[in-house]
Amino acid sequence: MAAKMKIGSGKLTSAYIRHKVDHNSRRLGTVIKWIVFSIVSGIIVGLVGTAFYFAMDWVTATRLAHPKIIYLLPLGGMTIVGLYKLLHDEKDTGTNLVLSAISAGESVPLRMAPLIFASTLITHLFGGSAGREGAALQLGGSLGNTLGRLFRFDQKDQHVMIMCGMSAAFSALFGTPMAAAIFSMEVVTVGIMHYSALVPCVVSSLVAHEIAVAFGATAEMFNIGEIPVFTLQSAVILTLLSAMCAVISILFCIMLHRAEWMYRKLFQNPYLRAAAGGVIIVVLTLLVGNQTYNGTGVSVIASCMQGQVRPETFFMKMLFTALTLGAGYKGGEIVPSFFIGASFGCLFGNLVGFSPAMCAAVGMTSVFCGVTNCPITSLLISFELFGYDGMPYFLLAVAFSYMLSGYTGLYRSQKIVYSKFKTNYINKQTH
Asked: What is the pLDDT at residue 219?
């Protein structure tokens, strides 16, 4: 009897070992699969993203060298509309489509990549007020989805490839691989992250970043200078700033959405809509007397870090960006949100007598968090842009901005899965 039990136990042990070996072999195979394919994604998307980075530099330099080119902005807008019509993408929903592809299984067409590439360059060449992350997310999402289909992945794995592509493009363009790796996982469904995509997104982000660096792309970094000592008083001051930035982020999102609604109501023809938007931006630029609010405005952010800002700067950038993107021009809202946050933060610092540079950095972090609803990404990007020494301030800024910004957001396809105020499952889209 004892001998039979030993034999049975031996069989059980042998079966258990075989099961474990087989189970862990499949896991190892999955790890290897994602390392290989995320490297491929990082290389391809990184190269495209790097090309876009230098193309953006060229169009920006061209516009600055020939400021009168802004008069062609209405023509540029009509060209963008024509390109989307030519490639049968008249109902383009941009980044919202990429987010929907991950959460709801919608398809991201390959034609999105060249369309957003060309149209963003046109927007910036002729002086529209926009960022570049919209192009990054759409380029990366489109290429990632195409690679997923090419590799014959199932739908869930295609979603991971889309996130890989988004991370790679964001990393190549912004030079922030940590934030890029997390952003694509965090932005889709706030409160639930697809951690299965962590390794692929990290690998593709790092690969794309190294490719961009190898070709000479430089990451944006801003020097705060001396970091104020973290005290109760300084904590209260910057908490107040982050709360005000949360309100600013709500206002910015409302302006963006209302501008689009206004244009569509007044101008049903998309060509006329783009032309009208271009004319409005040109007129506003002439009234201002310079092109401070056209393009990305990175130079203004640098000035804010030096404590130099005009009181109306943050609002004017909100207005220019809303009127540009609402008319159908392409680009993104994140770099403008940095501009808005930096200028408002600098203004706040000058008014209350607290380090304008520190306030500008906190403003950038807070507004970015408020409009994207991505606190982890916001914290990481603050470290990559400003260093770790200001960590307590950035941590406070992210926490309060996230809570107080409510359920507004840049992307209508983004879902807030859990409440910001209670541990309740709400699963509602931003507005």
From this structure: 80
Instruction: Please state, in angstroms and rounded to a whole number, the distance separating the CA atoms of residues 117 and 136.
Output: 9
Beta-carbon-side half-sphere exposure of residue 191 (alpha carbons within 13 Å): 19
Backbone dihedral angles phi then psi of residue 320, each to the nearest 5 degrees: -60, -45
CA distance 248 to 245: 5
Report the Cα–Cα distance between both ends of the chain, in Å, rounded.
71
Gap between the Cα atoms of 176 and 331, Å rounded: 19
If DSSP codes are grouped into helix, strand and coil, which group holds residue 193? coil
Name residue 295's beta-bridge partners: 129
**Under DSSP, is residue 190 helix (H, G, I), strand (E, B) or coil?**
strand
Question: Computed from CA positions of residues 349, 253, 280, 86, in that sequence, does the dihedral angle turn out positive or negative?
Answer: positive
Q: What is the pLDDT of residue 9?
A: 55
Which runs of consecutive H residues, i.e. helices, occur in 327-390? 334-352, 356-372, 375-386
Alpha carbon distance 145, 165 (integer Å): 8
DSSP class of residue 226 equals: S
Find the helix or strand (DSSP H, E) in which 426 lies: strand 425-429
CB 45 within 8 A of CB 143: yes
Confidence of residue 220 (pLDDT cuts 50, 70, 90): confident
What is the pTM (predicted TM-score) of this model?
0.93
| pLDDT per position as a tens digit, 61-119 | 999 999 999 999 999 999 999 999 998 777 777 788 888 888 776 778 888 899 999 99
pLDDT tens digit sequence for 275-299: 999 999 999 999 999 999 999 988 9
Strands 189-190 and 425-429, bridge-based pairing: unpaired
DSSP for residue 241: H
pLDDT at 48: 95
Specify the higher pLDDT residue, 12 or 283: 283
The residue behind tokens 């060509």 is 271
71 DSSP 8-state letter: G
Both structure tokens of 400: 């309060």
Buried b / exposed e over 252-273, threshold 16 CB at 10 Å, is: bbebbbebbeebeeebeebbbb
- Residue the block writes with tokens 């697809």: 194
More confident residue, 102 or 212: 212
CA 201 – CA 163 distance, rounded (Å)? 7
The domains located in the chain, with CATH, are 24-214 (1.10.3080.10), 232-429 (1.10.3080.10)
The two beta strands, 415-418 and 425-429, are antiparallel
CA 94, CA 421: separation in Å to the nearest integer? 30
